[in-house]
Design a protein that fits this description.
Number of strands: 10
Strand content: over 45%
Number of helices: 3
Distance between the termini: 42 Å
Shape: globular
Strand order of the largest sheet: 3-4-5-10
Largest sheet: 4 strands, antiparallel
Structural class: mainly beta
Helix content: 10-25%
Protein name: Immunity protein 50 of polymorphic toxin system
Order of helices and strands: EEHHEEEEEEEEH
Number of domains: 1
Radius of gyration: 16 Å
């Protein structure tokens, strides 16, 4: 990632989106509309917010083609102790998809929990990089649409008194 810092430390992971958040106003207008809306959402990097991407769990990746344009949907599952919604990101006009380590194929669930992400302008739209506990996913596309959907969370519901 160019601005967001995700580093393994002796005690776990050090996460710092501050450099990205300082730079975001300088390039936000260069992002396509959906990517801009997602990246500039006030809760996106607020670790205490339910719409922060940290701790979401990549669940599955689906893809297809519409009108000669490739699309990908990334489904991220909530974490009951933090989120009340699942997140689906639909990438339109996909130019590239990279998943590291490469031996995981398209099984994004093996990437484990999302640590942080970064959305940057690209000459053909935007570049979205997601760092997870066990790997990285990078999609370059014309644009993306992020949709939060209510999730059933029996673990959270049974802990309410």
């Amino acid at each position: 990632m160019r601005y967001v810092s995700v580093e393994r430390t002796r005690g776990g992971m050090a996460l710092d989106p501050e450099a990205y958040l300082r730079q975001l106003p300088s390039f936000a207008d260069s992002l396509p509309e959906g990517a801009r809306s997602f990246a500039t959402d006030p809760g996106h990097y607020d670790f205490l917010c339910q719409r922060c991407v940290k701790d979401l769990k990549p669940e599955r990746l689906t893809s297809g083609e519409t009108g000669g344009s490739r699309w990908i949907e990334l489904h991220l599952r909530h974490n009951c102790w933090k989120h009340e919604e699942d997140l689906t990101i639909r990438y339109s006009g996909v130019q590239s998809l990279t998943i590291e380590p490469a031996d995981q194929g398209l099984n994004v669930a093996q990437l484990q929990d999302v640590m942080l992400d970064e959305v940057l302008p690209h000459e053909r739209g935007c570049r979205h990089e997601i760092i997870c506990l066990s790997g990285t996913l990078v999609v370059t596309s014309f644009d993306l649409t992020a949709t939060w959907l209510h999730a059933d969370c029996p673990e959270r519901d049974t802990n309410v008194s």
